[in-house]
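Troubleshooting log. The previous structure file for this entry was overwritten by mistake, so regenerating from the original sequence record. Sequence copied from the archived sheet and checked twice against the printout by T.R.
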Amino acid sequence: MPSSAKSLLYIAIALSVSTSVIADNSIRSKEIADRFTSCDKNHDGRLTRDEAKGCMPRIFDHFSYIDTDNRGYVTLAQIQAMASK
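Regenerated output below.
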């Protein structure tokens, strides 16, 4: 196989892997957003430890780590930032 064909093949593989990762991240972000919305009982855009307790157990377990400012709540943006690490 000529080197230019190999290069194109490698580029095609890299692009397909990148696209798949982006799609997976997008799906995960949507799932997190949907779960957050259903758990946010008072619809204030904030999830308290009590709201997370029965609904988002992994968030509940790591609440102090996510709530870096010790405000007593976490936002969707904070949760998504942690999920992307």
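The first strand starts at residue 47 and ends at 48. Archived copy saved in two places this time.
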